[in-house]
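job 3f2a | input accepted
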Amino acid sequence: MPHPKILIVDDEPSILNLVSAYLKPEGYAVETASDGPDGLRAARAFKPDLIVLDIMLPGLDGLELLASLRRESNAFVILLTARTEETDKIVGLSMGADDYVTKPFSPRELVARIKAALRRLNQDGVPSGGMFVFRHVRLDPEARQAWAGERPVELTAVEFDLLKTLMENRSRVLSREQLLEKVWGYDYYGDSRVVDVHVGHIRQKLGAENLILTVRGVGYRFDDDPA
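job 3f2a | predicted structure (227 res):
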């Protein structure tokens, strides 16, 4: 079985060396890049399963690089940011990042998140029950395809798993913390609003706000009738 491939893009050599030192003993194939253009070239040549991407990069900043990547790659992306403004994190998630870690960070925490993401990605294509067929939405877990009515819906890996989890628990309210544990696969150390951003993406792509209901102060509930 091939080793999972991880690309680290950061302009600080100390971070490249530190994260690489933690990942390589775990058996991962690791490549690094120190600026935006090199990161894009490395992503195209290396075709990583997961990318750790700093926002502040010379040549091409992390958000520009992310936008380019999302046009040609479904790799899981964890943003690294030294910024504290919430808008930076929300913009990154809105542009297609799957998660973020704020500097300074614990290398062990980052590795734990990477492991959880790769475990979930390695389950792609494994049969996981039959079709979810509702009045307005269908989901095929084995083919990882979704439809709103007869219209195919393109979902990222995280969006797909989040919608599937909500469907599996139809009419049951799941808290943000429960969704983080079930979908992201670890105890989340950061801001649980990462869930809100991805739910917003799913609503937009399905073209319906009322299929995933917000239960104020608690979490979310999938609300559609079986077909």
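job 3f2a | The first helix runs from residue 13 to 23.
job 3f2a | closed
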